[in-house]
């Protein structure tokens, strides 16, 4: 594994926690068009993207899945593994060839339970990502549907 394989995670977590997680990561790759997971199915792993892009999408009855966000280099793919009932809230598809670091959710959750400081750090890291993505989704929805100027945050 490279010296800083999961640099976004390592920057967000205290050094000792990031190093521990780095040791349970495995390198994986996905060809373009690969479905990493499907909405509603069991969330049993997560990834940090090294190269390529992954579209996060949501099923829309009678239509193609709607892309909610596209994530890339050093970004987290998947947060549903951390929060019960551990089922995916979205789907994900590689929109280009992807190389990533994959983490087994059971292993990481077990590490977090055994070490409350690690658990709090991981929860904060993932929570910050979820909050940022929700703000981004809100802004995109306001841009699409709200009258001009109504989306400003004060």
From TrEMBL:
Matching InterPro entries: cNMP-bd_dom, cNMP-bd_dom_sf, RmlC-like_jellyroll
UniProt-recorded name of the protein: Crp/Fnr family transcriptional regulator
Domain of life: Bacteria
Transmembrane intervals: none
UniProt xrefs under Gene3D superfamilies: Jelly Rolls (2.60.120.10)
CDD domains in the record: CAP_ED
UniProt domain Cyclic nucleotide-binding: residue ranges: 9-78
């Amino acid at each position: 594994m490279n010296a800083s394989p999961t640099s976004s995670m390592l920057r967000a977590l205290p050094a000792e926690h990031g190093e521990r997680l780095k040791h349970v990561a495995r390198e994986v790759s996905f060809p373009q068009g690969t479905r990493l997971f499907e909405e509603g199915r069991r969330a049993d792993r997560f990834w940090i993207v090294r190269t390529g892009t992954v579209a996060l999408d949501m099923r829309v009855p009678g239509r193609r899945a709607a892309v909610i966000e596209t994530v890339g280099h050093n970004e987290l793919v998947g947060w549903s593994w951390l929060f019960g009932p551990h089922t995916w809230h979205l789907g994900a598809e590689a929109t280009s060839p992807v190389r990533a670091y994959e983490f087994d959710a059971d292993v990481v959750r077990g590490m977090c339970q055994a070490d409350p400081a690690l658990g709090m750090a991981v929860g904060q890291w993932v929570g910050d990502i979820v909050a940022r993505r929700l703000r981004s989704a809100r802004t995109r929805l306001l841009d699409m549907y709200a009258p001009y100027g109504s989306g400003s945050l004060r």
